Amino acid sequence: MKYILASLFLLFLSLFGIHKPVYKFAGYFFSPLQYGLTNTALGIKDFSLFYSNLRSVRRENIKLLEDNLILESRVVELKRLEEENQLLRNQLGLSLDSLKDRPLLLANVRGNPTDLTTATVIIDKGSRQGVQTGDNVILGNYLIGKVTNVYPIESEVELITSPYTSITAYNIDSERKTEGIVLGKHGSSVVLEKILPSERLKTGDMIITSGKDGIYIPGLYIGKVSEVFEDATQPLKSATLQTALDVKRIDRVFVLIKK
Amino acid sequence: MKKILTLIFINIIFALLQTAFFPTLFGKQALINWVLALGFAWLLVDAPVTALKSVFVGGVILDVLLGTRLGLSSLIMTAGVYLLILVRNYLFRGVIPHLVVGTIVAYIYSLVILAKGSPVDLLLLVLAFVSALISYLASLVFKQILASRS
User: Coiled-coil annotation: which residues (chain A) (predicted)?
Assistant: First the structure.
């Protein structure tokens, strides 16, 4: 009980301000200690916070890297879709009237590892998607080639530059619609042959398919005349054509599906 | 004399830890009342007079360190320990009186000394109980130390 009374006595004395010199005196001793302890505690706290933050920053960093990978793949996918969308719009805008009622199938192109002449390519659509042998392959109104072999999920396309290609075509710029046969030249160029000497043909004339061969749809653009060969000793004329597209560098095409 | 000097020394260390070190490290809520825990530990080793002396000295030191009115902390804690002695002597012993008195002292201490909250602050009461609980656990540790030294 005496300690309670002593506390009350101290409390009573403090009402008269007697404690102030005591506090001042004690402050000289305890303030540096309190300051040191507070700083030590702050140091420990900062240290632990630093390490806990380090772990969370690491976790965050890993998560961000993962998110970044996902986003990058989405960006690639979106770009691919955008490109595909643009291609479809272009195709729809450019298609000939004769093509409008025919179903088009978008296909990705890859090289044909078994063909060293680069006269053929492989597309990622096959019989499961409705592709058949002989289907024309186009891009816009440009003729790319025709399907020669069909597999369940891919097909082989013979390009117009293939030496095995033979297309009946005519000169749309001449009044008489000069006709000839377009032949591939080992994957490098195409030539228009079997032109009658009386026919007029000049550099820059546009050559399109006539459809008379029964393989290629009429009206598809093949290329421009780049050089005309007239030899008096030869009964027929020929011309080198510059293809409208670099067919070896195309990565997407449309297959004209037969109904 | 040696005993009282030892009490003063230990209480200075505890009061310094209680006022400067632990609040900075763990925040100011639900902290161990080291001075009170030491007093409880003396009670647990059946030294009630030493317990009263300890909390009185510790309370005065706390007042000096906190800059509160001299005798206020010592009055609250001495009264708390005295109440606990009465309960232990005339009613029952065990953990419950320690927790009850500890909670009351921590609650009053928070209201009067630290001036946190109103008299009907439920959160403050919960924090006072948590403080009493961990102070009691600390007093059990101190008891082991004191018992091994005596």
Answer: 71-98
Give ∠ CA B100-B103-B108 in degrees, rounded to 5.
Answer: 125
The residue type at A112: N
Query: What is the ipTM metric for this complex?
Result: 0.77
| Distance (Å, whole) CA B146 – CA B37 | 12
Q: Phi/psi class of residue B117: alpha, beta or left (left: φ > 0; alpha: ψ in -120 to 50)?
A: left
- Mutate which of B61, B64, B85 to test chain A, going by most A C-beta atoms within 10 A? B64
Q: Which residues of B touch A22 (CB under 8 A)?
A: 64, 70
Q: Where are the domains of chain A?
A: 1-94, 103-259
**Contact in structure between A227 and A218 (CB atoms under 8 Å):** no
Count contacts between A and B (CB, < 8 Å): 83
R_g of chain B computed on alpha carbons: 14
pLDDT digits (tens, 9 = 90+) for B53-95: 888 989 888 888 887 888 888 888 898 888 888 887 787 777 7
Which class does domain A103-259 fall in?
Answer: mainly beta
